[in-house]
Design a protein that fits this description.
The protein is built from 1 helix and 6 strands, in the order ββββββα. By secondary structure, the chain is mainly β.
Length: about 100
């Protein structure tokens, strides 16, 4: 799959977790296909891979994301998207602090 390779480097004073992120974005569809997460010492920490492209609403997206910690072989986080709705209006009140505490 043809991808753009993008290196994301935070500004020196930015309050971020990662020292840098290298990501691959598909040329057709602009989906994140892979990402490498590095610490402040430029040591790779996690690798994320996307797969299982399916049509969701009006677009095609990867519906499976696997995040593998480099130093913890056999461990991973897997996110599977079963359905997704795009361009759905959301009320301003949804983002209130009180509502964010109760959303599950």
């Amino acid at each position: 799959m043809e991808c753009y390779k993008i290196e994301l480097i935070p500004l020196p004073d930015a309050a971020v977790t990662w020292g840098k992120v290298i990501t691959w974005i598909t040329v057709d569809g602009f989906n994140q296909w892979e990402a490498e997460y590095y610490d402040e010492d430029s040591t790779i920490v996690n690798v994320m891979n996307a797969s299982d492209i399916k049509r969701m609403g009006d677009r095609e997206i990867p519906t499976k994301l696997e995040i593998d910690p480099v130093n913890k072989k056999g461990n991973k986080t897997v996110l599977v998207i079963n359905s997704m709705i795009f361009n759905q209006p959301i009320s301003e009140s949804f983002f209130s602090q009180q509502n964010m505490k109760s959303v599950k």
